[in-house]
Model the fold of this input.
Amino acid sequence: MQPFYLQQPLRFSCTRCGECCATAGEYYVYLNQGESERIREYLQLSRGWFRRRYLRRLEEGERVLVSAADERCIFLNSDGSCRVYPVRPLQCRSYPFWPELVNSATAWQRESRRCEGINRGPEVARGKIERCVQACQQYEQD
Done:
């Protein structure tokens, strides 16, 4: 069966609500070494300070960003903007076009309850969605 995003056009327009930046519960912003290094350089911080202040390791060894006290991304500003937007991780750049969200209508609709930009705005080019899906799949393999 074809993935949902190949069956019909998807619409998305970011409203900067910040809900995708919420890190409550088991939701994390994952980073690989390259992403971590780009953010650190962008912020012009030492490796040690950046690691202590912004990173943590899960039991499985995965590197994630720490959450702010309000369980939002540590880099989310009060106005809804991202402090590290030019160097944000793939997870952030590709949202909401993650394989687990665009492969089924049910998952896409469920996520639309969290993200008010889903099903709004212009149709997103299939090529853009496919590039995001492929990048996410490659990231998981690395």
